Amino acid sequence: MTKLLAIYKRELKYSFQSVTAYAALGIFLAISGYFFFSLFRFYNLISFQATRNPQFTQSLNLTDGLLRPFFSNISIILLLVLPLLTMRLLAEEKKQGTFELLLTYPIRDWDAVGGKFLASVTTFAIMLGGTFICPLLIFLYANPEPGPIFTGYLGLFLVGCTFISIGTFFSSLTDNQLVAGVTSFGVALFFLIIGWAVPFVGPRFADVLGQFSLLQHFDGFSKGLIDTQDVTYYLLMTLFFLFMTLRSLESTRWRN
Amino acid sequence: MIEVEDLSKYYGLTVGVKNLNFRVERGEVLGFLGPNGAGKTTTMKMLTCYLPPTSGTAKICGHDILEQPLEVRKRIGYLPEKTPLYLDMRVREYIEFVAHLKGVPKNILASDVDRALEQCGLGSVRNRTIGKLSKGYQQRVGIAQAILHDPDLLILDEPTLGLDPKQIIEIRQLIKNLGSERTVILSSHILPEVSQVCNRIIIINEGELVAVDTPDNLRNRLKKSSVINVKLADSEKSADAASFLSGIDGITLVKEGTAVKGSLAYILESRPDADLRREIARRLVEEGYPLLEIFSEELSLEDIFLQLVTEEAR
Ligand SMILES: Nc1ncnc2c1ncn2[C@@H]1O[C@H](COP(=O)(O)OP(=O)(O)OP(=O)(O)O)[C@@H](O)[C@H]1O
Ligand SMILES: [Mg+2]
What we know:
The complex is a heterodimer of chains A (about 260) and B (about 325).
Chain A: H1 2-17, H2 19-50, H3 54-58, H4 62-86, H5 88-96, H6 98-102, H7 109-130, H8 133-141, H9 146-173, H10 177-193, H11 202-212, H12 214-223, H13 228-255
Helix pairs in contact in A: 1-7, 2-4, 2-7, 4-9, 4-10, 4-12, 5-9, 7-9, 7-13, 9-10, 9-12, 9-13, 12-13
Chain B: E1 2-11, E2 14-24, E3 29-33, H1 40-47, E4 55-60, E5 63-64, H2 69-75, E6 76-79, H3 91-101, H4 106-119, H5 135-147, E7 153-157, H6 165-179, E8 183-188, H7 191-197, E9 200-205, E10 208-213, H8 215-222, E11 226-233, H9 241-246, E12 251-257, E13 263-270, H10 277-286, E14 291-297, H11 301-313
Parallel strand pairs in B: 3-8, 3-9, 6-7, 7-8
Antiparallel strand pairs in B: 1-2, 1-4, 4-5, 9-10, 11-13, 11-14, 12-13
Helix pairs in contact in B: 3-4
Bound molecules: adenosine-5'-triphosphate and magnesium ion.
Magnesium ion binds next to helix 1 of chain B.
C-alpha cells in the first residue's frame, strides 16, 4: 500500500507541475461555465415567457430545465478533456524507459496502475469540484432540489472514473501519447453514443445496447435517482478496463 | 549467488541470447563483454525479471526469476542502459520515492537516502532538478537508486557510457568500492575498464557465450607467443641489429616496429612460455649495441576480445 501511495503522490504532484493539467482544468472550467451561463440565460428566457402562459409553468422546473442539460453537457466535456489527462499516464513512462525501471522494483503491477489511476481520479475530482460553483449560484436565486444535484455529481464522477480507466488502458497499450489519447477518446465516445442506436435495432438488441450505453445509465442520476444497476454498470466498466490494463502490462512483457 | 541455466531469449526470429550457462559467486565483480547486439542488455533484463526468458531460467540468491520475481527484485539494484529517470523530480525527492518503492522501512528511510546520495557524491546537488544535471551526475543518480536499499546484487548496464574521462574514473572508483561489499555485474565496451574493475569476465557474441574466466587466465589461454619490444639508438652500430637479434636462440620472428626519429624499434616473438628478456639484454650490451629500452608486451584485452569474437565468427 505504501508503494501504491508513493506512486500516487508522485503522479499527483507531477500533474500539478505540468502545464497540461492546468490547461485541461482551465478549459474544462471555462467551457462548463460557458454552458452553464447559456443554459441559465435560456432558462431565464423561458421562465419569463412562461409567466404569460400558466399551463406552461406547470411543466417547468429547475432540475429538468437547467440541471439535466448542464450535467449532460459536462459529461460531453469530460469525454474531450479526460483523454488529455490520461493519455500520458503509462505511455510517457514507456517511451522514456522509466517504466522498465519501475517494473524492476519489488512492486506489483497493481501498485503502478492503481496509483496512477487514483491520481488521475483525484485530479478529475478537483476539476469536477470546481464546477460546483454553478449549482451554488442557483441557490442564490432559487430553491433547487438538492437531491438531483448530489446524484448528478455522483453520476458524473462515475462517468469520469470510467473514462479514466478506459484512458489508462489505452495508455498502457502504446508508448505514443497521441495514439493513446485518440483511441481512448474514440472508445469512450463509442460507449457514450452506443445508446443512440437503440431506437433502430429492434427490441432484442435495444435492450443489450441500452445496457452498455454510458448515457442511458446516467439518466437516472440526473433525475435524482440512484439505481444500483447504474452504479454497478460504472463500477464494472471501470474495473474491467483496469483489469485489462494489468493484463496488457503482463502481455507486453511476454511479447517483448 | 547467480545460477543461469540454459537461458534463451528470442525476439520473434531474432536471437537475443541462446543457451547461456554461467554462475556468479558472492562478492565477485563480473564483466559482461560483447560487441553491439551481443545480448548483454537482454541478459540483464531477464535477470532483473523485466523480460521473461523464452526458455531456461536463472536463480538469484536461490530465488527463481520466473517463480519468485518479487523476491528477486528485492535483492537487486539495476541501472538500465539509458539511465531512465524522472527528469522533473529533484534528486533527493526521487531517491526518496525509489526508497518507498523498494520498501525501505520508514525509520531508516531518511538515513538510507542520505547514505546513497553521499556514496555517489550527490550531496551538493540533492535539491537540483534531475533534468538539469549533467549526464555524469544523472548517471550517479541512476547508480544511487540502484544501490539504495543495499542490494546483494548490482546490475549495471554500461555505467560509464557517455561520461567524460574524469567522471569515468570517478564512477569506476565508485563501482570498485561498491564491489568490495557485494556482487556486481557490469557490461561495458571499454576493455581496460573491465580488466581494472572486474575479477571475472564473460564474453558473449551473437547471443552465445564465448568465454568465462579471469582476465589473467584469458590472457594466458590465448597467448600464442610472448612478445618483446626492443628499442635501440639509431647509430652505425645498430644497422645490422635485426639480423643479430634473429640470431639469438629461441627468437622465432623479428619485425621492425615504428619508432621516433633517432631510434629503432624491433618486435621480437618467441615461444609463449619463454622469457628471453635477460638473455637479449645481455647479448645486446655485450656486443655494444646502444640499448635504450626492452620490455615484454602483455596481450591486451582488446586482442583477446577480437581473437575470441572473430574465431567464433569463423
Ligand atoms: N525489443 C526488441 N525487439 C526485437 N529485437 C531486440 C529487442 N531488443 C534487443 N533485440 C535484439 O536482440 C539482440 C541483442 O540485443 P541487446 O540489446 O541485448 O545487445 P547488447 O549486447 O546490449 O548490445 P549493445 O552493446 O549495443 O548495448 C540484438 O540483435 C537486438 O537487435
Ligand atoms: Mg546493451
